[in-house]
Fold this protein.
Amino acid sequence: MHPNVGEPAEGCFIRIKDMNIRVRIAVMSHLSDAQAMLDFNLKKEATNEINLAKAILLAHPNTDDWTTEKELNEITSKLK
């Protein structure tokens, strides 16, 4: 059975209709980027990614929450 439009499928992390994303996926993505940056000795950039992951967690302590790309962009702009 398929989920209704805008509802995530079982185990799905992204809602296609409104491009919401699970907080844990956003955090893990930024932490993975930081790891890759460290492999290339990009310490400042890696630190920025880690700080962004921490800011997302402060805004959404429950990593099962959903967030929007717009909200993630707002968090990013506040760190600059």
Summary: Strands lie at 14-15, 20-22, 66-68. The chain has a mean pLDDT of 86. The helical segments are 23-39, 43-59, 69-79. Residues 68 and 74 are 10 Å apart (CA to CA).
